[in-house]
Amino acid sequence: MPAILSIEALGKQYKSGHKALEGVDLSIERGEIFALLGPNGAGKTTLISIICGTVTRTAGTISVAGHDIDHARREARQRIGLVPQEIALDMFSTVLNTVRFSRGLFGKAPDPAYIEEILRDLSLWDKRNARIMELSGGMKRRVMIAKALSHEPELLFLDEPTAGVDVNLRRDMWALVRKLRERGMTIILTTHYIEEAEEMADRVGVINGGRLLLVEDKDALMRKMGKRQLTLTLQAPLATIPDELAEWSLVLAEDGLRLIYSFDAQAEDTGMPALLHRMSELGIAYRDLDTSRSTLEDIFVNLVEKAA
């Protein structure tokens, strides 16, 4: 099955000479959740804006569901739903009229049952006759999502969808995203919340300085680049790490009571058994040990630092 979104050699350079995007290649498969991670100014929003037709690119090609955005702009745009970072709504309109109007803008015939389904899924049905100005910030963001879904798109962009919302609403939105994917929708989200990508994404892309540094299956990325950490809580504090333990590149906590060892869990020899044996030989006793794995955030920070 062909990709729902294909991007080749995409570039964006402003008159000032600033390159917001350079040589971006990306292919998104139908039905996946793709998370695009990057610091502020990395190019995430510029990329989405170009795909959606609100910013003009200076190089490259883009097709959506097989439709080139230049030669079949209307067909491509009808297949895209966009939830931007900024809340842009008519504050005097009602929730129901806002979503109905958005559907009409795409030339779709009225479908009250579908609109009701969207509003119920987003817990907005009871607020359907409320004016936008009467809603909380979280509810307004839900209306933005309802607008984006009103014309039944195949590809949904969520640009920082949970920025500024509380934890409970964030998890409600995660549940909604999963539900949309179960219906066959493809979702691309940008986020500063690493746990959002770790929780939901099938694949992860890391962008920085306008360049796509990496695109990888999330689980494969965690296996390939994730480290595990062994923390040993000692019976008695150490002033320094003995020279005899130098080969393990240990870190001694400031209190002298914890030795920290980072290792590759996928390696044939992690070095952990040999470390514990050597400590026993040296008479360094520990009263507790704990292992933890690197998070996606650790991997992201490491990638961005290397590219800087």
Features:
10 helices; 6-stranded mixed β-sheet; 2 domains; 308 residues; alpha/beta; 4-stranded antiparallel β-sheet; Rossmann fold; elongated; Alpha-Beta Plaits
Detailed description of the structure:
The protein has 308 residues and is α/β, with parallel strands linked by helices. It has 2 domains: 5-223, P-loop containing nucleotide triphosphate hydrolases (Rossmann fold, 3-Layer(aba) Sandwich); 227-298, Alpha-Beta Plaits (2-Layer Sandwich), CATH 3.30.70. The protein has 10 helices and 14 strands. The protein has helices at residues 44-51, 73-78, 95-105, 112-121, 137-149, 167-182, 194-200, 218-225, 272-281, 296-307, and strands at residues 5-13, 19-28, 33-37, 59-64, 67-68, 80-83, 155-159, 186-191, 203-208, 211-217, 228-234, 251-252, 258-263, 286-293. The strands form 3 sheets. Strands 6-7-8-3-9-10 form a 6-stranded mixed sheet, sandwiched between helices. Strands 2-1-4-5 form a 4-stranded antiparallel sheet. Strands 12-13-11-14 form a 4-stranded antiparallel sheet, with no helix packed on it. The longest helix has 16 residues, at 167-182.
